[in-house]
# Entry
Amino acid sequence: MNASTAVRPALHDCRDTWAATLADVASKDPRVVAVVNDSVGSSKLGGFQKEFADRTINVGIAEQDMVGIGAGLANGGRIPFVSAAACFLTARAMEQIKADVAYSQYNVKLVGQSPGVAYGDLGPTHHSIEDFGWLRTLPGLVVVAPADPRETEQVVRWAASHEGPVYIRVSRMGVPDVYPEDYTFTPGRAVALRDGDDVTIIATGTTVCRALDAAELLSAGGVEARVLSMPTIKPLDTDAVVAAARETAGIVTVEEALVTGLGGAVAETVVAHHPCPVRTIGFHDTFATTGSAEWLLDHIGASPSGIADVAREMVRAR
Amino acid sequence: MSAQTAQDRHAGFVHAVDTTLLPPPDREIAVLGRVRADGDRQVVVTHLRRAATEVRRRAIQTVGAAGAGHIGGEFSITDALVTLYLAVMNISPEQVEAGDPERDRLVLSKGHAANALYTTLAVGGFIHPEALRTFLQPESMLNGHPARSKLTAVEASTGPLGHGLPIAVGMALAARMDGSSRRTFVLLGDGELQEGSNWEAFMTAGHQRLDHLVAVVDRNRLQQGAKVAETNDLEPLADKLRAFNWEVVEIDGNDHGSLLDAFAGVPAASGRPTFVIAHTDKGYPVSYMRDNVAWHHKVPNPDQVAQALAELDTILDGIGKDPQ
# Structure
């Protein structure tokens, strides 16, 4: 097969799956409501709003109000999915997320749309690379980043059935299917998508497919990488991280975020339980430059070859 | 007796821990319980006046013993709290314990008045009076700001200002989705209205025509360190709220009859949410504290506690003898 005839996998915008799943969940559970900040379109909830007009609250451009209203709806026994562009949901309403949702332990589902650098060329005001780092510091809040449509559907269904606050990061950048058809999401558990004992690559959300491609490149050179998808940033799967630290040369983390997210969480775990080399790929104490989401990820070394280079170096240094 | 045993035998605590007990008050507050708001007006007002005075008697001793608190703003909001919990709201300790979805909701957005809330809950039978002796003590359920995770009677954890109103809007939306006539009350400080999140929520509530939502602003005109008017003025407050599509009522917020009348007007015929501007005095009715900005979080010394108790006892002595 040459490059011109290579079949590229279909890419999916996980927001489509999120919206379809929410509508299905709402059709079965009258407690489910959507709360949005003028983001009906960007949350892909136009169809939901038509079908469930009385269960869609659009507060307009008012994120603090939006999250507080979510807590109040939860007080009334509703299951609110509070959906907005991740950058505004998390940064503008951070104190509401802390006090009204996490501290109050209200059954609110926060859904960050188009996270990371999805709005790449709009600039860092519209990026949400801080959300993992910020939200994983909040006690009692579950933080999940699905990697493909199959996982997005399962995470939305799980969140609706789970009693307690959850943050779901729904990607906009196209991603291929990364999980097998029989995949079942388990909160707080890593998923081994590829076995290997030379080195471990841990990725989450949009970077899982890149980690898998990196493992292919490594394998061609005789390096067998273990690839763990880590949909749940918090609570982190400590067992899987410690096993990787014990059994392989080291861990490379890859995320579409500041490395205070997955990278920081993995590093803390490794240091506490089984120190090993850790390299974090993501944004390092910097706002992103201008470019498309895909370009930006390649630019910071989160391309398959960039990830493979770091992993190879780790194996060589063993 | 330890707090553990007191809490074990009483509803209202999410969990109980053994903790330090503050020195006891001169006499523990009596559980006066509720009164029917639509009963004989003189009986209702007398009950509320007695309860509010008892709450203040107990609250100032709590602050004196704990060495911290926000007594001035607690005294200004006490009458609204007592009127709502003991007469106006459809709520009882049994409803709270059972999680009755049809109970009326109250959010104390000015969460720093927590001691007034706790003491009102005690006088109403929602928490055991002895629990007040754990205020601010290690692992107590009674934080300096109310916590939903620690007291079942607390509907929302508050403390950072500007949070209660959006939450109350959500509660009122949930009630409307349920087709319920339950009401939602939120108590705000006037300085608190400087927080922009309130204005987002005022807009939403007006737009949504949440007629079973009531916001009470404790208009004591003083914030932490200065007059509201000199810091970032709210006026014309009534006009602002009318422009945001709220029904506005201005009353003497330290007068139980006026409070009862204001709440009896809910839902307003206009279909709008109700904004009660409760004109109060910080520190009311204690002479040395009243309308004095120093008493935002100043702690009374033993002599000041004694003087306040003497003034409050004079009020108690007059209740029933001097019809209003």
Remarks:
- The longest helix of chain A spans residues 14-28.
- DSSP finds twelve helices and twelve strands in chain A.
- Chain A has two domains: 14-170, 191-313.
